[in-house]
Design brief:
The protein has helices at 8-31, 47-55, 57-60, 73-81, 92-101, 145-156, 171-180, 192-196, 223-228, 232-249, 251-262, 266-276, 282-290, 292-308, and strands at residues 36-40, 65-69, 87-91, 106-115, 120-123, 137-140, 165-168, 185-188, 203-207, 216-222, 277-279. The protein is an alpha/beta fold.
Length: 328
């Protein structure tokens, strides 16, 4: 007979090979990237991530990302610190506060933008200079970027936080209270600032353009996630660049998508994106990350200022691990 049964030895070898294949596939499955959740709040500099989600760029580059849309920097900070998300977009202020006080250490993976006029202090019509804020009620997110912006603005004119009445208030509520005259001034940012400026007499008293490159926005990811998936930073940066290039090549379509999420007109969003922030492309982001000593120094300075204004009482040494020199 021409077709004999396989020898037992060959059967045994094939069975072993099949078992090994199952083990390998099982290991691959266990190491496969799980869904990554990122807290994001309205701010034009973060919108490339939303654009990437809408255009399917995460999926194209092998990532399963869920953007958790929240109302403010403070909300994103709380979501991360409570373990609800794997990462967040924020300024260095929120990232540092998380690092020194949270059970979930993080690392900066993408510097997204510098604020270049987007962060503002708005005031009622009768207040025409920062010195006139003395004794006034100033609203801000007290455990977030707002208090930091107010501290630096007041310091420029010889005032301190103790010279004003700081009112801890969220973005939407702060805008309403400024319009009603409950607040004399408000620390805010787009898109809230756009709506707040529509109230009669409300005007810009201070903008981040007066403090160039002071406010750096970043995407940070939980350190334990990065340890499991060391290729993740490169993948996220590739997605970011894809969205950046799409915006360059198709500005009309890109701005329409991003403006809709920010709930502003396309014209308003385009003005914010082009004039009030400086968004980094891949090379710009890498330049900041590779100059790790300068970035670490900036993180340390931020941490020390936050400690000075009683936003935390922890040791700032933990911020040194927020920048991974081997990441890129």
């Amino acid at each position: 007979m021409m077709f004999n049964a396989m020898p037992k030895r060959l059967l045994s070898m094939k069975a072993v090979a099949a078992a090994l294949l199952v083990l390998v596939l099982g290991a691959c499955s266990r190491n496969e990237m799980q869904q990554l959740s990122i807290a994001i709040n309205p701010w034009p500099g973060y919108e490339l991530l939303y654009l990437a989600q809408e255009q399917g760029f995460f999926h194209e580059l092998g990532l399963d990302v869920r953007l958790v849309e929240l109302n403010s920097l403070s909300d994103a900070q709380r979501a991360y610190m409570s373990g609800q998300v794997d990462g967040l977009t924020s300024t260095l202020v929120e990232a540092v506060l998380i690092q020194v006080d949270s059970a979930y250490p993080l690392q900066v993976v993408i510097p997204t933008d510098y604020s270049n006029g987007g962060d503002v202090i708005l005031a009622q019509a009768g207040i025409t200079s920062l010195t006139e804020l003395k004794g006034k009620r100033v609203g801000c997110e007290a455990n977030s970027l707002g208090i930091h912006v107010l501290y630096h603005a007041l310091r420029r004119v010889g005032l301190s936080l103790s010279d004003v009445e700081v009112v801890n208030v969220g973005q939407s509520q702060g805008s309403e209270e400024l319009a009603l005259g409950v607040l004399d001034a408000l620390v805010t940012y787009p898109p809230t600032s756009i709506e707040a400026l529509k109230a009669e007499g409300v005007h810009k008293l201070f903008t981040s353009r007066e403090a160039p490159e002071e406010i750096l926005d970043v995407l940070s990811i939980k350190q334990s996630v990065l340890e499991r998936y060391p290729a993740l930073p490169q993948q996220l940066l590739a997605v970011w660049q894809r969205a950046y290039e799409y915006t360059e090549q198709h500005p009309k379509q890109a701005f329409a998508i991003m403006a809709e999420r920010e709930q502003v007109s396309v014209e308003e969003f385009e003005t914010m994106f082009n004039n009030e922030i400086h968004v980094f492309d891949k090379d710009g982001a890498l330049q900041i990350l590779r100059d790790w000593s300068s970035l670490t120094n900036k993180l340390m300075e931020t941490c020390e200022v936050l400690k000075e204004i009683n936003q935390h009482n922890s040791n700032c040494s933990r911020v040194h691990t927020m920048v991974n020199r081997e990441m890129f």
